[in-house]
Amino acid sequence: MRIASVLGKLVAVSAIAALAACMSAPPPPKPVPKLAFTNKAAIIAPASSVSFQNDYTTTSAAPHVEQAHDVRPDSIARLWVDKRLKSTSMAHGNLTLTVLDASVLQEELPRDTSFKARLLTRQPEYRLVGKLRWRLTYKGPILARWTSEGTAEASASVLEQSSINDQEQAYADLIDGIAQNFDARVEDQITNLRKAQSNAVDATGH
Question: Looking at the domain assignment, is residue 16 inside a domain?
């Protein structure tokens, strides 16, 4: 009896210690987008000035969810212009990146409601669909006006009964997916601008 009593007390003490450890453990850090392009070399724009303009107004109306987060698709574009796009005094004209759409929508997904499915699997509950649409506009002496539009999209699914941390991770992955696509496509657009300027110079013979 005394042995059983001692064992019982040890189990109780262990349980209390484990509970205390769980309660005192700090919560996991909130997932944030990596935005890998911020570590890449700057792009020298063929323009003497660069600017950013946001023509998209976010909304709290469902199914929009971008307004609930610190980093939104339009944040990608603004940061990209600030970190990667640099003007040069060797060129002329202005290059403006204008955000046209920067939405993230939450789409509820159909689920198998059968007993077996509910018992054995965790199904996707909803999908996040993000879009960043923009326009590059160059105005200068070489080209009176040059424009090019682009779109970068990404999506991420969230399982039912996911933790808040998992939901935040899905959103961070979505933003990073948009950022990666955006970075590559704007680079291509600027390459095309350089070609257009070169062709314009050849056409005028200057």
Answer: no
